[in-house]
Description:
The complex is a heterotrimer.
Chain A: H1 13-23, H2 29-37, E1 47-51, E2 63-69, E3 72-79, H3 87-91, H4 96-104, H5 111-126, H6 132-161, H7 165-185, E4 194-195, E5 198-199, H8 207-230, H9 233-239, H10 247-252, H11 258-262, H12 269-272, H13 293-316, H14 342-353, E6 361-369, E7 372-380, E8 388-392, H15 394-398, H16 401-406, H17 411-421, H18 425-429
Antiparallel strand pairs in A: 1-2, 2-3, 4-5, 6-7, 7-8
Helix pairs in contact in A: 4-5, 5-6, 6-7, 6-13, 6-17, 7-8, 8-13
Chain B: H1 4-20, E1 30-36, E2 39-44, H2 49-58, E3 63-71, E4 79-87, E5 92-100, E6 106-108, H3 123-134, E7 137-139
Chain C: H1 13-16, H2 25-29, H3 31-34, H4 51-61, H5 67-76, E1 81-82, H6 88-96, E2 120-124, H7 132-141, E3 147-151, H8 153-156, E4 177-179, H9 186-200, H10 208-212
Parallel strand pairs in C: 1-2, 2-3, 3-4
Amino acid sequence: MSGPSSSDGSGATTLSEYRRREQSISLSPIEQQIAEVGAEETREELLTLNFGPHHPATHGVLRLLVTLQGEIVRDLKPIVGYVHTGIEKTAEDKSYWKVIPVIERMDYLAYYFNAMAYCAAVEALAEVEVPPRGQYLRVIHLELNRIASHLIWLGTSALDLGAVSIFLYCLRERELILDLFEMSSGQRMHTRYFQVGGVFEDIPRGFEAKLREFLRDMPARADEYGDILNSNEIVLQRLRGTCPLDAETLLSLGVTGPLLRAAGHPWDLRKADPYCSYEHFDFKIPVGTVGDNYDRFAVRLAEIYESVKIIQQALDGLPEGPFITTDRKVALPPRHELATSMEALIHHFKLVTEGFRVPPGEIYMPIESPRGELACYVRSDGSSKPARVHMRDPSFVNLQALSHMVEGSYIADLIATVAMLDPILGGIDR
Amino acid sequence: MPDATGLELIAQELRAAEGAGPGAASGSPVIDTVFFRGRGTLMVEPERIRPVLAQLRERGYRFLCSVHGVDHYPDEPRLGVVYELLDMGRVDRITVKVLLDAEDPVLDSVCPDGETGPGWPTADHQEREVYDMFGVVFRGHPDLRRILMPEDYEGHPLRRDFPVGGEPVRFTFNERNATGSGA
Amino acid sequence: MKREPLPAAAGSLDERRPLVSQLSSRQLLRGSELLGLNQPAHLSGAELLEGAELERHVHERVLTTNLDKAVAWARSNSFFPLAFGLACCAMEQFHAAGPRMDIARFGYEAFRASPRQADLIILAGRVSVKMAPIIRRLYDQMLEPKWAISMGACCSSMGVFNNYALVPADKFLPIDVYVPGCPPRPEGLMHGVLKLRKMVQDDPDMGWRERYEAHGTEEVLPEPGAEDHRGVAVNGEPEDGHLA
């Protein structure tokens, strides 16, 4: 089942080791069933295909061992770990402030969400309040990141399905969003903008005008993408009715986010258990009906419009006030105070060298990321470094649903389903 | 989240139910309850994790969000496995925690179906990750092997006594001495 | 089929232009010169060039090079990058191929999926212990000549994560250009690719070393026991002729 045995001697030691390691992966039970039934009865053999970690259509370095009967997928085993970075181990080694850039790089398309989950967890542990302006600024950046993440998903999925030009259109929009991020924090990606207690800096002059311009144009652009893809017969045929999965199975597999909403279960943490002043905003949750690939696509596309609405409301209602907590034990004092106040200087020194201490305890803080429930588990032992930081990544759990989704469908549907699943390997592998 | 009294009530009910249940060993399954920052945690005997989760499922906590591990080094017992449950109907969360020794950490897997009821398929990859990172062996898991590290890796990286590792940073003064990369 | 010449306006070139079939071969070879077309202004008619004028004529029209340089020019302007993105840097790689920072204006937009067809591997992202042998296999499958760019801090050095799980790329691959950044902007990646282009054209851009006439990574170190700590200049000679 896994190729020639290591009988060819010369120079094939590495080859045979590799094959031996592959043999340790026991493949589908269906193969055993077929072996029991007898090979004569089933005319077709089962073929194990390796969608290797390097593949243009797997989003990132995902390896899939697919057992095929002809072109029909009978079993699927995802193998992950190819971009495992030891983020959680590194985070135990750094003070709370310094963990933020490390943890941001986990789910590398939704970097603000990683930072938000972590900062919310530490704020709950340290009992730090985020001022309203800080919360609204957080919401604006989170929803902008949601739109950016959905745009890359749309671009790469359309690329996988063959509609190549959508990729460039989505990147055009994403450039505008990254310009906005660069205006507020200086960096396009992994901005370290969210800090424990609020945000790092206030938005500059010109940000609001540019953001309003973007919000004015974005719905029309999303309409464009919808029109292009919804009138494309090939895309519709590849997405409609392929690989559906019902909400019961998804719930037992722990799947959340657009996948669960596409199956008809309206669960969104922003509405069910609001955090960070999401309860102040009026928006809808797009919910699908059948749970096939088309519904997953439509739900994410509709979420872009809802995010635009949220940002509009947050921008219109942006309150005045501090953008980060005034608790100097946790947040850096503003620089102009350092020249006049001795306490500010001492606080600054303490925060920059050792960092702030968090009372011992553990907490699990979930938020709604573009892929589902992203949660951060922080355990503190009273020192200035966290004792354990664990991110419950939605893609890691959603990946388990893939084998259930594609069983019995074609390879082409497998590609479309992987695209609609929206896995981010950085989150899966951490 | 159940408030502090709600949490105590749940713990009492679990103790009562377990005492009367079939094949129940003596002693209560719930060792302790912790109510911290508005969240409730049940500390549970390692052998009773499956019945406790089944009971909580009957009470409505039907969604298992996360299974993850903690290393409490140097406190004993060292390894902890944390189960986060969610009741979507009432938007209620509860945490169940199990503590194990590091010498021989074995725990029943909650993934497969068993005599206590249906399993939680979502725990499949997550228990594999706990095994990979902490070394906790899950009895009854359908396919327990390393998920993030290479298959033949030795050691469990997220234990606190495992070194962080890494390459020495090369400056000009130790450029030739530091074993590093490249020319 | 007989073709009739188009009626021409009086006094225009078309009157003078005969049908091609009526010209002799010699006339065809020197055709434009005979008609007074394509002549520099200072030459008239069908003169043969001599001396300095001939040299100038040749300089304006003929380029000599050697085969290596020509091949290097062609190779450098037509990299086929391998479509290989690991992590966050891959997002910025997409943007480098995107509409604003268009990698196609340099000719590098043909991202190939198969390593057999690619000659440039841009390692975009963090290389984990599990992935390193696979990248080595991909690199081995690429055909000569091939180049490698290490994009981002994680594969150039260890980046943000200096821990057990990562491998710096030059431990298992010969890297030509390192692009720092976390993640590098698309402009940064383009800067790196264009540096590689200059390297392939056999004209590596030495950057600051050119400006300061430096070699390698020497620092200015104080001479031991020197009275005035002026130190030794970068390329080994004492500054200002001072012997410390």
